[in-house]
Amino acid sequence: RTVADLFPTDVYTPGGTPTADGAARILLVNRRTSQTEILFLAGSSPSNALWVNTQAGVVLENERVIPPCEGVFTHNRRGSAAFVDQQFGEVRTNRFHCPLIEGANFIGAIYPVEQTPRTRGMLAADTFTGSSSGTRADQILNWVADDFTAVSIDEEVLSYNAAFLNRTRRSANWVLVDGSSTENLNDAVLFRPSRSAIYQIFDANGVFGDDSDNLPDYFISSPINNSLD
């Protein structure tokens, strides 16, 4: 699906210029570079609004294709804390092939249900990398400000709640990176129905892009109908 398919310009709020305070915006992660990209909805009204990327000149992005498992952050700027973004698309009922690369992978909600590392297929037995050190293990990151309490995206401290796959001689469990708790999070809800999350895949040799730590065969089983896996 394209950016315009998933984020119709007549639903999101345009700004007079691409960087105007009033313009809706979308944040994505470019898998080729592991860097974030921000698209703004530019235009004086919904009838002439266009999604643009201003990080390398002004690039029109309405027809940009968002890969099936890619996540996004949206900021509609409707001026009301009670506003809930509408979501457009189909609900998938079979298992989901979602290849992962070393470094940051911004993964969408995939299914409109709560999920855990176990139901997402993210345990050590699923070939994810664990370690007693959070810096040498795969991680899950959820944006702290991903709720309706933010005054504005500019005023929030952009930080994440992070968990890592803690592997010891006896077990391999997801636990909090900050050490505030050693609770086993394998069956905890870390993925919410309408929220994207970052999978940080550990790069063992420190060479980004050499593909040595990629997980090309990663699948997420369907929580809706397992018979369709």
Describe this structure in words.
The chain has 1 helix and 12 strands. Strand 3 (50-53) and strand 4 (59-60) form a beta hairpin. Strands 4-3-2-1-5 form a 5-stranded antiparallel beta sheet, with no helix packed on it. The protein starts with a helix and ends in a 9-residue tail after the last strand. By secondary structure, the protein is an all-beta fold.
Summed up, what is this model?
The chain has 229 residues and is an all-beta fold. The protein is built from 1 helix and 12 strands; from the N terminus they run αββββββββββββ.
Question: Characteristics of this structure?
Answer:
five-stranded antiparallel sheet; 2% helix; 24% strand; 12 strands; mainly beta; 229 residues; 1 helix
Please give the largest β-sheet: 5 strands, antiparallel
The chain-level mean pLDDT equals 81
What Rg do the Cα atoms give?
A: 19 Å
Low-confidence sequence ranges? 147-157
The SSE order reads HEEEEEEEEEEEE
Question: SSE layout and pairings?
Answer:
Blueprint: H1 3-6, E1 25-30, E2 35-42, E3 50-53, E4 59-60, E5 73-75, E6 96-97, E7 103-107, E8 139-143, E9 160-167, E10 172-176, E11 197-201, E12 219-220
Antiparallel strand pairs: 1-2, 1-5, 2-3, 3-4, 6-12, 7-11, 8-9, 8-11, 9-10
